TrEMBL record:
<protein>
    <submittedName>
        <fullName>Ribonuclease Z</fullName>
    </submittedName>
</protein>
<dbReference type="GO" id="GO:0042781">
    <property type="term" value="F:3'-tRNA processing endoribonuclease activity"/>
</dbReference>
<dbReference type="InterPro" id="IPR036866">
    <property type="entry name" value="RibonucZ/Hydroxyglut_hydro"/>
</dbReference>
<dbReference type="Pfam" id="PF23023">
    <property type="entry name" value="Anti-Pycsar_Apyc1"/>
</dbReference>
């Protein structure tokens, strides 16, 4: 399983793409998780063919996770995608996403490829992928996801503060990405993760590596310095490519402290 970090930024980041990853298996099946406003261009910059992404999974539909869908579908329409696309979303969040697809096609009403809309459930399979989902604590319902392919497991939180259910989903993952907006502790009823809570997760979940992402721009330098004191945590960054098939993937994630200098502008 390979993970391509398309974006690691918070909603209004001036330096990073909005948060999104691509998950690729050994058969070159590709999923896109979330699709905020800066994600389509990052995909085009990678020269990913219009038929390559088979599935888009939406953790939730805040605009920084969903509004790129119109532009991406429009590009696939313009360059004549033919392969069907599956979209996983929460049932109650489907209608706004369908409006984005309608915008991509307007004033026409027909796309040149099929879209198979699937509701997210607590556990399901897709081809040989085993998937489980759970709610985080966010201002909008958000489904964290755990993907197991063969021996490898990835966890991706989407937005929100960890819950007992999302923590259970993270347990023992080879790689986990947890939203961590803040360096300082946030209130227990907050809608976002923070560093102290993420360090607690690191101690309790036996993950092999924990990537913190969706960090507020002004928190990144502090977070990089803080996770530098840990062995398994890192601050995610745009353009990271992680191959879980490489047993030695962890050192490559660890800290490029030049990120701190680049971040100050
Ligand atoms: Zn959100």
């Amino acid at each position: 399983m390979k993970i391509d970090v398309i974006g690691s930024g918070s909603a209004f980041s001036k330096r990073n793409n909005t948060s999104s990853i691509r998950v690729i298996d050994s058969l070159q099946n590709q999923w896109l998780i979330d699709c905020g406003p800066t994600v389509p261009r990052a995909i085009w910059q990678r020269n990913i063919g219009v038929n390559e992404i088979k599935v888009i999974y939406f953790t939730h539909i805040h605009p920084d996770h969903s509004s790129g869908l119109a532009a991406l579908i429009n590009q696939w329409k313009s360059f004549k995608r033919t392969e069907p696309l599956t979209i996983f979303c929460q049932a109650e969040q489907k209608q706004p996403l369908q409006a984005l697809v309608a915008l991509a096609v307007w004033p026409e009403t027909q796309l040149c490829f099929e879209i198979d809309w699937q509701d997210i459930s607590a556990a399901f399979t897709w081809q040989h992928w085993q998937i489980r989902t759970a709610d985080t604590q966010h201002e909008m319902a958000n489904k964290a996801i755990r993907i197991t392919i063969g021996e490898k497991t990835l966890f991706y939180s989407g937005d929100g503060r960890p819950t007992a259910a999302s923590q259970a989903l993270m347990q023992g993952a080879d790689l986990a990405f947890q939203e961590c907006a803040s360096f300082d502790a946030l209130p227990e009823d907050a809608s976002h993760g923070d560093l102290p809570d993420c360090l607690r997760l690191l101690a309790e979940t036996a993950v092999s590596a924990l990537g913190l992402y969706h960090c507020f721009d002004e928190a990144i330098a502090h977070l990089v310095r803080a996770v530098d004191q840990t062995e398994k945590a890192f601050i995610s960054r745009d353009g990271l490519v992680i191959d879980l098939g490489n047993e030695d993937f962890l050192p490559g994630l660890m800290h490029d402290t030049s990120i701190i200098e680049r971040e100050i502008f």
